[in-house]
Amino acid sequence: MSNATSANTIRPEEATHFGKLAADWWNPKGSSAMLHKLNPVRLGFIRDAIDAHFGSDSRGVKPLAGRKALDVGCGAGLLCEPLARLGAEVTGVDAAEENIAAARLHAEGSGLAIDYRCGDVGQLGLGGYDLVTSMEVIEHVADKAAFIAALEAGLAPGGLMILSTPNRTTRSRLLLVEGAETLGMVPRGTHHWNDFITPVELHDLLDAAGLKMGNPMGIAWSVSRGLHLSDDLALNYIATVTRKD
């Protein structure tokens, strides 16, 4: 399916907030430093999920060769570029023009051909993607059900979707919102705890859209290990999604 959905999922104030961070997005010590720490953890999960779903060789360097990937809420391309290096034909979508401009500039400097689009994914009519990813995005959208419908519309038959998002728990409010923003680890106004979504809520949204969520894996933090994959879902979690049989 590639028909555009009618509901607008973009919150203009969210697009403005993240657009202001665009120029600093690729600075590992800048305002997006936490994303730079998070990205390798997510990529480890994504690579394992790709190999398991598509049957690719875990030792291969381009498991997505010949496949199309869509990253929704791509920011300045922090995930799009590794997906391109894994062999995919990548499309990145973001609500902020500043992010798309920064993403295009960085990809050009990296010698990567990535198709970046600015807009609401539900309005762009995108479809036929073997892999659809959306990392730390659903908690920022205006209509979660419409957003899931738009992601589903972009997924090719037999495709794989991967989503990550903060969990709505007391610990996430203390650490991700009050702690991280107060300490300057995350820009103020980035997180709105009431918009966080629990694994059960995400499962139900996906189920209503004809999608099946795999067992989620937590992204936890400790002094000794930093950010790492874990069975602890309290802060943040990542999960595979496929169409129901």
UniProtKB/TrEMBL annotation:
- Please verify whether the record's keywords include Magnesium: no
| Coiled-coil residues | none
What EC number(s) does its UniProt record assign? 2.1.1.222, 2.1.1.64
According to its UniProt record, this protein's enzyme class is transferase
Q: Which PROSITE patterns match?
A: FUMARATE_LYASES
Question: Which family does the UniProt entry place this protein in?
Answer: Belongs to the methyltransferase superfamily. UbiG/COQ3 family.
Write out the function statement from the record: O-methyltransferase that catalyzes the 2 O-methylation steps in the ubiquinone biosynthetic pathway.
What name goes with this protein?
Answer: Ubiquinone biosynthesis O-methyltransferase
Species source reads Novosphingobium taihuense
Instruction: Kindly list the organism's lineage.
Output: Bacteria, Pseudomonadati, Pseudomonadota, Alphaproteobacteria, Sphingomonadales
The record's gene field reads ubiG
